[in-house]
Amino acid sequence: MRKLFFLLAFFMLSYFAFAGGLLTNTNQSAQFIRMMSRNASLDIDAVYFNPAGLVKLEDGWHFAAYSQTIFQDKTVESGFPLLNDPSYLGKVSVPVFPTAFAVYKMENWAISFGFGPNAGGGSAEFERGLPSFEIPISKVVPGLAGLTQINPALKVDDYDADLYFTGSSIFWGLQLGATYQINDMISVYGGVRYMPSKNVYEGSIKNIELVVGGQKYGAPAWLTQTAGTVSGIAAQAAAAGTLLSGTASSLQLIVDGGGGSLTLAQLEGANIIDATQKAQIAGGLQSIGLTVDQINAMNLNTIQGTFSGAGAQYTSTANTLTATSATLNGTAGQLGDKEVDTEQTGAGFTPVIGINISPNEDWNIAVKYEHKTYMTLTNNTTVDDLGLFPDGAESASDVPGILGVGIGYRGLDWLEAQVSYNHYFNKYVAWGGNVRDMSSWKSVDPSKIRNRESDNGYEIGLGLQFNLSDNFAVSVGGLYGDMGILPSYQSDFSYSNSSFTPGAGIMWKITDKITFDAGVSNSFYKDDTVNFADPDVPSYTDAYGKTTLSLAAGLSFSIF
Question: Which DSSP symbol is given to 54?
Fold first, then answer.
């Protein structure tokens, strides 16, 4: 039986985003949720979406605070044939997803500050774990099939286990920058975003049980007991091998004296052996399964060869059983309870530049580029029974660069429209190895572990705001995103599906200086199927899906 390999790569949980790229949340305002397109914004949320356009605000102070509540379900349907239940559900909850902006505008200058979860911002809970946790356990049953050759009562029919993990991830974004208006048409922005980050992971594999004869037994205890039983049988086989081989050696003197062609009866008649010796030899042959007629027909050469061969076979069986006993003891150790409790922290800086072009009062064109963020996370580990998170170890967690382009139209009193495009430079970030491949192949053939790969991704959005009065508006919008994911990227730990997200909401100007925004959006993801190879079963397919519901509200106000 090949050594079991358990892998709980909780760090992959840090790769969830709610709207945006693989590691980026672009849902940074209630206006975004209600329109799904804000790259050409000239309002307070332009701090994030179009900071070069902030000089379009009136002179004075401007502030905004928003919060979202987000619910996401992640579903995995695994085709791995040995699993008891192929369906897994992970729930991501974000009760509070806060963002805040502040701007001071004076003539041609605007100084701005932004705050919000640039990535993550929630917690994920998988009450049954994931297939990659359970697959190694499911392989225990066929791996123990050979025990029935020792004793049919040792047949293992099934397994059970308690698998659980939860993780939270938050990459805060604190952005500071300045906007300068070159002329009435063109303004530019330069700033930097500081991203302090923290991931917290807790997980366990507990109470692994084996079903034998319709009864459940704790796997470590049953395997240890069975190892003792097998070890006892091995000792008996070794003793039998020694005895039979010794008997074969004791007959050599008679063979050397010319008695090899004689039967036992002839040897007794020639007084070469006595009746007692004849009975002992015959008894030894019967113990290995020969009948009386077969024994009476054998000459001494054949008898000696039979004893020698049987002795070697028993010795070989004893060695095999001894190795099996050792494997069972080793497996028992691996199937004990395992826990992980670790925290990863780090920080990075993202340079941000932008330009805003307003050819006239009706149209607005915005471009923003966020540089790649280089980030290293350091482990602070309390418990790591699996050896995956050595305390103090470091790992890379870079955030891809983003190019954002927006076009806005405000030529009609009753309508505002925006088209947005985001380009994510995903292919320039190393995403590590495929976790499912690591779970299946690390202890067998590491060369079969694929690197997670993706092409560059994109999003395109359209938002419409209908101004029903000077103080009240409704809006709708839609966003389509495809992150350019290649099959080698996908696994149950981290996957990205193309999606379409409609949104709608309201804008209410309570006073000239205070505005209330609220919106709701729901992301519809296209299910993705991924093929996997495994050293122990034929190729199989997993299906990955998810849904996301976002509710947002907030206030903006100005001090002129």
Answer: G
* Burial bucket for residue 180 (CB in 10 Å: 0-12, 13-18, 19+): middle
Q: Are 40 and 50 in contact (CB under 8 A)?
A: yes
Q: Which two tokens stand for residue 347?
A: 């920080």
Q: Supply 265's token pair.
A: 């009866």
Last residue of some domain: 267, 297, 328? Answer: 328
Between the CA of residue 25 and those of 212, 399, 407, 459, what are the distances in Å?
Answer: 49, 11, 21, 12
- Evaluate whether residue 117 is within a structural domain: yes
Task: Give the Cα separation of 311 and 479 in Å (integer).
Answer: 76
Q: For residue 408, give both structure tokens.
A: 């806005």
- Helix axes of 275-287 and 300-334: crossing angle, nearest 10 degrees: 40
Cβ–Cβ under 8 Å, residues 66 and 27: no
| Count of domains forming the chain | 2
Considering the domain architecture, whether residues 113 and 131 belong to the same structural domain is answered as yes
| CB contact set of 323 (below 8 Å; sequence gap of 6+) | none
Place of tokens 């349907």: 77
Contact (Cβ atoms closer than 8 angstroms) between residue 357 and residue 35: no
List Cβ neighbours of 420 (8 Å cut-off, separation of 6 or more): 37, 38, 39, 40, 49, 404, 405, 406, 459, 460, 461, 462, 463, 479
3-class secondary-structure state, position 419: strand
DSSP SS3 for 43? coil
- What pLDDT score does 429 carry? 87
Q: The domain containing residue 385 runs over which residues?
A: 57-213+337-559
Mean pLDDT of all residues belonging to the chain: 90
Reply yes or no on whether the pLDDT at 386 is more than 80. Answer: no
Domain boundary among 295, 328, 361: 328
Write out pLDDT tens, residues 451-477. 989 999 999 999 999 999 999 999 999
CA distance 397 to 431: 8
Residues 310 and 412 both lie in one domain? no
5 Cβ neighbours under 8 A, 6+ residues apart = 136, 439, 442, 443
- The DSSP output letter for 427 is G
Q: Which residues contact 359 (CB under 8 A, 6 or more apart)?
A: 185, 365
Task: Give the predicted TM-score (pTM) of the model.
Answer: 0.84
- Per-residue pLDDT reduced to its tens digit, 256-306: 888 889 999 998 898 888 999 889 888 888 988 899 999 899 999 999 899
Residue 47 in domain: no
Cα–Cα distance for residue pair 357/368, rounded to 1 Å:
12
CA 174 to chain centre: 29
